[in-house]
Amino acid sequence: MPLRSILGLVERDTPGQVIEVELERAAGRWIYELKLLAADGSILELEVDARDGTVLKRKGGRGTRRESKK
Question: What angle (nearest 5°) sits at the alpha carbon of residue 35, between those of residues 43 and 38?
């Protein structure tokens, strides 16, 4: 998926300002690594599957929660 589409999906569920984006290949798939600045000032890091926009990992921010990898 194009980055613009990924950012639209992320904005819908995770409000904040994107401050860094990387695209890397890991375990045979392309992964977007996003760093966001949340409204409360915390930093949130997401790993998103570039193929379908699935959030694979969520780290940081308030109420940290981790998604399981597919």
Answer: 40
**Which pLDDT value is given to residue 64?**
47
Instruction: Tell whether pTM > 0.70.
Output: yes
Mind listing the domains of the chain with CATH numbers?
3-60 (3.10.450.40)
Distances (CA, A) of 39 to 14, 16, 24, 36, 43: 10, 6, 27, 10, 9
Looking at 1-70, list the stretches that DSSP marks H as alpha helix, in order from N- to C-terminal side: 3-13
Cα gap 37→69, rounded to integer Å? 23
Q: Give the closest residue to 44 by CA, choosing from 67, 62, 31, 26.
A: 62
Backbone angles phi, psi at 64, to 5 degrees: -55, 135
What average pLDDT does the segment 37-44 reach? Answer: 92
